Amino acid sequence: MKRLIAAGAVFVIGAALSGCTYFGSYFEVDQLNKAQPKGSAFTQALTAQYRDRANYSQNVTMNYEQAYRVADRGLITADGTSVQPYAPAEFDVPSAQQQEIAKARAQLEQALTAGARDRAPKEAALAQAKFDCWVEDAEKTWQPELYQVCRKEFYDAFGQMIAMQGEPVDLSSTNINATDLNTNPTYAVDTNADRFLIFFGKSGAKLAPSTVGSLDQIAQIILTREPPLVRVEGHSDRAGTAKSKQKVSEQRAIAVAEALIQRGVPAKVIQTKGLSDSQPLIKTANKKEPANRRVEIWLVFDKPAQ
């Protein structure tokens, strides 16, 4: 009889604790649902990702502890603060997964630091949210299929972040090596995009080897869709003299145009122009902002080539 009473007491205590967790997470999730995200495009996109996961944890899987934790991160992000990806040490990650997760986190942090938050805010937010999901679910060893889903979604999102959904990025200067993540080093470019970006990780107008796959895909898109005009516009950062900035922007445009012509794009449809530092992609105090060292490729369908 005493054992039954004890068991009942444990059940009551457990139910009470569960109830506290539920109401606490309910309040946090409700606050997140009402929050008006501030800050950059990245923090706003990350807030939306955390909001979706918090609601799913609260209302579908009823994992109230997780819902509370994710909602709390979402509220911090909604206030305009960029939270860092989860550290594996914060969770009971099985030893078999620790090395891969640690490596993936290092690569993610490196890409974010290199400017991915500004260059591809939606893709960067998705990559961070899916990484956090992977780390959280990795400790649920009784449900291994969960972390596998988040793991795959992270790698997919990471690839899209690098490719920028049709805006390829040269990340050669960041030492990011996609093959280290056991993924295809050439990511799919959005075939419906009309604008593509090629970044120059260093000063000068030399194309990095990492842009080859993106240029191959962009050239194929142009050949398939046959726009009457392809504008290739070079840009520079704010470092240097007016003359040097104009010159390097023109050289970058010519380098990309020549690469497209080598891949079969008719020279007659290509129009090159150097815009110096007149149209920065990112306005910062850093005169050597890597995101501004770029070429933009525009497919124009509403007027013929000159």
Describe what this molecule looks like in 3D.
With 306 residues, the protein is of the alpha+beta class. It has 2 domains: 38-79 and 88-163, no CATH class; 189-300, OmpA-like domain (60s Ribosomal Protein L30, Chain: A). Helix content is 54%, strand content 8%. The protein has helices at 2-34, 41-59, 64-78, 95-119, 121-138, 144-163, 212-225, 242-262; strands at 195-199, 229-235, 270-274, 294-300. The chain has a 4-stranded mixed beta sheet. Helix 8 (242-262) links the parallel strand 2 and strand 3 (270-274). Helix 1 (2-34) packs antiparallel against helix 2 (41-59) and helix 5 (121-138) runs antiparallel to helix 6 (144-163).
- What is the H-and-E element order? HHHHHHEHEHEE
Average residue-wise pLDDT: 80
Spatial ordering of strands, largest sheet: 1-4-2-3
* Secondary-structure class: alpha+beta
Q: Characterize the biggest β-sheet.
A: 4 strands, mixed
Number of domains: 2
Helix content: 40-55%
Low-confidence stretches: 1-21, 165-187
Shape: elongated
Question: Span from first to last CA?
Answer: 93 Å
Number of strands: 4
Strand portion: 5-15%
C-alpha Rg, in Å? 24 Å
